[in-house]
Amino acid sequence: MSVNYDAHLDQAIARLHDEGRYRTFIDIERKRGQFPHATWRRPDGAEQPVTVWCGNDYLGMGQHPDVLGAMHDALDATGAGSGGTRNISGTTVYHKRLEAELADLHRKEAALLFTSAYIANDATLSTLPKLFPGLIIYSDALNHASMIEGVRRNGGAKRIFRHNDVAHLRELMEADDPAAPKLIAFESIYSMDGDFGPIEEICDLALEFGALTYIDEVHAVGMYGPRGAGVAERDGLMGRIDIINGTLAKAYGVMGGYIAASAKMCDAIRSYAPGFIFTTSLPPAVAAGAAESVAHLKTDTGRRERHQTQAKILKTRLKALGLPLIDHGSHIVPVIVGDPVHTKQLSDMLLEGYGIYVQPINYPTVPRGTERLRFTPSPVHGPREMDALISALDTLWSHCELNRAELAG
């Protein structure tokens, strides 16, 4: 009897529809120089102007003229792709310059470039037990999927500590062999709630137990610290972190991921990680644009300040409406709806009726019952865009009869 593979696929997709968490792509065409304004190509073929409120190009660097100029120059000079892995013809002066910029950014001896921060996390964390036999990795319960996957795949010992619970982390570390090599993996900003990791306390614990520290600064690089190196730089703790993971696809507006660490650490990961060894390197034009963006944001403190100001304004106005907002003081602005169907309906109504694009965030990205709309304000979201968003949310929240907090005053 043959297996009906199509039936299995139908059942898997139907489950997502039944739970209200089937995800759809929204076809968006960005316009250079006009972001956050874009064009939505509707399923019926019609075009509708929209304002993007859920993009991760946090600072609008994806349209910065210096970044685009560097990419054009590299494209004209070298062509489209790199032509190979880093070991086989895929290392260019553009890749080397980018790694030098990143090492300088984080005040580390070296940096290692990957095609994405997901791959950087997965490849690094899955490789470390090869370098440190018997390694125990202590991982925050809310770490990103890429970190979870890297820890899961490495075949070594792992311990999961409750989110941001340093006391629980201590209990786990005290129960293990003092002589075993150890590493604590955590994030500086957790992107779904926007809360900060307890960096200093974790560093203190790592020092006490002789552990390495691994921090994911994906939602912080470019945006925090005097030169944009992240929350660890802002708090004066960067030198206490052994391995820093970051992305070039969010605040830097391009693509790619990396780690920054000692020269020996980067050399070992480069030499042992399959996710690095067997992957074609980034196109030179992408590396050139990213390097220009990193270099620019080392000095553009004004852009970072405007970004934080916009986030504070949006949160203040949402709170004034009584909307259920999570505010941990970061730039992440999550508004809790609490039901996958309602979250999708709100997203659809905002898009179709108001030209506001914000993607619903459902399980498994967030726990069931905490489904949300997550807004990402930027320096290029002006008063007009802010007013339109607040007015639309106020109207739809009442229309859908969703709960509000008791209004102050």
What does this structure look like?
The chain is of the alpha/beta class and 409 residues long. Helices cover 41% and strands 16% of the residues. Helix 6 packs parallel to helix 7 (199-209). The model has no long low-confidence stretch (mean pLDDT 95).
Question: What's the helix and strand layout?
Answer:
Blueprint: H1 5-18, E1 28-30, E2 37-41, E3 47-52, H2 65-78, H3 93-105, E4 110-114, H4 117-131, E5 136-140, H5 145-153, E6 157-161, H6 166-174, E7 182-187, E8 189-190, E9 195-196, H7 199-209, E10 212-216, H8 231-234, E11 243-247, E12 257-261, H9 263-272, H10 274-277, H11 284-297, H12 301-320, E13 333-336, H13 340-354, E14 356-357, E15 360-361, E16 372-375, H14 383-399
Helix pairs in contact: 2-11, 3-11, 4-5, 6-7, 13-14
Brief summary of the model shown:
This protein has 409 residues and is α/β, with parallel strands linked by helices.
Annotation keywords:
single chain; 409 residues; alpha/beta; seven-stranded mixed beta sheet; four-stranded mixed beta sheet; 14 helices; globular
Number of helices: 14
SS-derived structural category: alpha/beta
Distance between the termini: 70 Å
- Look at the structure and give the mean pLDDT: 95
